[in-house]
Amino acid sequence: MTPLFRTILIATVLSFCAGLGGAWLGVQLLSRTEPSLHALVHGEMKLSPAQQAKMDEAESRFTAKRDALEARIAETNRRLAQSMRESATYSRTVELSVNEVHVGLGELQKETIKYVYDMRAILTPDQAKRLDDRVFEALTHEH
Question: Is residue 137 very low, low, confident or very high in pLDDT (cuts 50, 70, 90)?
Fold first, then answer.
């Protein structure tokens, strides 16, 4: 293996790992938060029928946005994979593809946070405090 080929191979592998690592981290943070909040709000809290109806509406809106963003992220990941396949180095095309993935993950995180605030607005002050505590635990891993 020539030194140039080895350098190109290492750069390609590191670029691929960095792109996947960033995507994985964003998904992990979101997936740890959302199921925990869902279980809290729908399982542990005693919601009134009016609160439950409003929660169902908020969840339906969020689910539609989340599904669309996840589909977009999957598509940008495919473009990233294709860019990496076509480029022997961390090219401008690869960088743009990585940035597209990050934008999608950022938008998903923003929509998730907006959803938390939508839920919070439906809750009583005591329920909102429990939600806030769970969000803090999920984002900081402090219990």
Answer: confident
